[in-house]
Amino acid sequence: MFQWLDEGALQIKLLIGSYVYLFNEPLYVSAWIYSVKVAFFSTLFCLALGYPMSYAIARAPPTQRNIFLMLIILPFWTSFLLRVYAWIGLLKTDGVINNVLQFFGVIDEPLAMMNTSFAVYIGIVYSYLPFMILPLYSNLEKHDNTLLEAANDLGAGPVKSFLRITLPLSTPGIVAGSLLVFIPAVGEYVIPSLLGRTDQLMVAKLLSDEFFLNRDWPKASAVAIAMLLLLVVPIMLFQHFQNKELQANKK
Amino acid sequence: MKTEGLFSKTMLGLGFVFLYVPILSMVFFSFNNSRLVTVWDAANSPTLKWYGKLFGDGAILSAAWLSIQVAAMTATGAVVLGTLAGLVLSRFGPFKGRALLQGLTTAPLVMPEVITGLSMLLLFVSAEQLLQYLFGWQFNRGVATITIAHITFTMAYVTVVVQSRLASFDDSLEEAALDLGARPAKVFFRITVPLILPAILSGWLLAFTLSWDDLVVTQFVSGPGSNTLPMVIFSRVRLGVSPVVNALATIMVLIVAFGVVLSAFLMRRQEQRRKREEQMAAAG
Predict the structure, then answer these.
(1) pTM given for the model
(2) Nearest to B120 by CA among B141, B98, B91, B138
């Protein structure tokens, strides 16, 4: 940003101006709230689906475990962009889901699923699910089964021993997985651009519009810095857990 | 216990359906004759006509070639830098600034891509102006800037992979070689590198895939005329489905599936050989 600093006082005023603008413009405020909301609920859905999946994999016989893990990782190696694209074919008005539902007479009129928040949730959960499952699995796999047996011997039911033993022990996995989903989801660009609403922007789209369409670089930078400030706490948390994990591996 | 296991197994099954139905439907409809993609034209399908169109599509082919070049250079650069960073972080003890270096290397793992892209572009623009001012140099954004930007965010992944491999690595082998009079450089290339080679290879593949797949960062730092494959795909599918993209996706899925199965097979064979050798060593 050197080239802007040369102009001195005027420039600083302008820079602060773009920050003030961020908080006063309703379009911006609603994009922020919407992004955080979408990221938060997507993380919850990922957890709700990913936790039982990781649990089942960790409990499967060792020979099956590797196959299951491979099946989880395989989509990750195929293009992210194309996997999001695949959902257009499923969700659009004459898409696969609507065709199947109409064929079986479940619905008469096609459901409008494309360009909705629902499609964004589907896209994010679909794309980030492996990032939730892998840390959760590597945590659940290490659990000591004797603890559960002891609880069982002492008369705890499966629900109770899950809530009192497995769940608390898996907290680091839950936190790591949730952060790995939440942080990139706040700044997600491709999924909302392809599947999302056209009347409600997410922050990343806003940033790139400011940049590419309006050519307003200071404002785009201000959006980026604001996003960074919002994400600093989760990123630090993630690094903290990442370091602890590495240290634990060393021992 | 029974019902709990049943619940998680059901979820696992549903999860796999969720993960694979989109991919399989994309593959399935690539053989559809209809331009509408998802409306099955039973009379004329299956057909390979979209594959023919794909291989006659100059824009896609040249973009794919550019992407391969960028991804290969990125992966190689990222492996060199990422391995060095991994070595420093796991071997040099608690030196000054270690926490900062660790933070800087892992941050790109979670950083939203728009931020990386925008900051890389601002850096390139400043560098452009500085070079112009100092030497009267002019450079255009294109393959070089894309590759530098890709190296920046992919090396983090290589570092993490190499570092976790080094964490479970026996230092005494290197110490023994040093005791026997091998020079540090020789120890590094004869002992350390071969032992962490699997991590380096998977880091290379990971960096290649991430670079090959990246859209957002590339959009910021690419110049006129340098369109990578994701940029071409994105501009096509923005306006809806396209049967040529389905054909392209099918080919990419096949390559990945083949690669994953092959690597699983090779790993298994290596594992078996190691076990056999251990048994023979124990017997002898």
Answers:
(1) 0.86
(2) B141
